[in-house]
Amino acid sequence: MFKAIKILLVDDSDDDVFLIKGLFEDAHLLNILYCVEDGEKAIKYLNQEDEFKDSESPGLILLDVNMPIKGGFEVLKEIKQNEKLKHIPVIMLTTSNREEDIMQSYESGASSYIRKPVDFSDFSKVIKGFEVYWTLVSKLPEGK
């Protein structure tokens, strides 16, 4: 039996967040999805600061690359440099298919780089593919 995985979605696009939430529900995948709209709030959430003082640590982070205030690469760097956070898998979920972005993601410690498809059915397949991550992550001991 698999336990629910807490997922932090960091994305500034209301449309993408709405779509991702709906696709997660449609796929009937075990998850608890928390959403923040920028990188600064993501760091506050992960560090349990300000309005996020009661937040729970996620088992997976879906991180958009291009965001205002603090971009995805900055957030990824902060996560991977923090001893309490660096174990959390981070998936870069973005519309960018630039080779530099892909290389920077992996060099900075991202677990995966997934391009957001424009087509709804392709996007649905991407979201359903996260079940592989939940299967692997749910078998890890706490804190790994």
List the helices and strands and how they pair.
Elements: E1 5-10, H1 14-26, E2 31-36, H2 39-46, E3 60-63, H3 72-81, E4 90-94, H4 99-107, E5 112-115, H5 120-128, H6 130-138
Parallel strand pairs: 1-2, 1-3, 3-4, 4-5
Helix pairs in contact: 2-3
What's the CATH architecture?
3-Layer(aba) Sandwich
Give a short account of the largest sheet: 5 strands, parallel
Tell me, briefly, the overall form.
globular
- How many individual helices? 6
The CA-CA distance between the termini, in Å, is: 19 Å
CATH fold topology:
Rossmann fold
The total tally of domains equals 1
Determine the mean pLDDT.
82
Specify Rg, calculated over alpha carbons. Answer: 14 Å
- Helical content (DSSP H or I, runs of 4+): 40-55%
Strand order of the largest sheet: 2-1-3-4-5
Order of helices and strands: EHEHEHEHEHH
Task: Explain what the structure shows.
- This protein is an alpha/beta fold and 144 residues long.
- It has a single domain (5-138), classed as Response regulator (Rossmann fold).
- Helices cover 40% and strands 17% of the residues.
- It has six helices and five strands.
- Strands 2-1-3-4-5 form a five-stranded parallel β-sheet, with helices on both faces.
- Helix 2 (39-46) packs parallel to helix 3 (72-81).
- The longest helix is centred in the N-terminal third of the chain and has 13 residues, at 14-26.
- The protein is globular and about 35 Å long.
- The two termini are 19 Å apart.
- The model has no long low-confidence stretch (mean pLDDT 82).
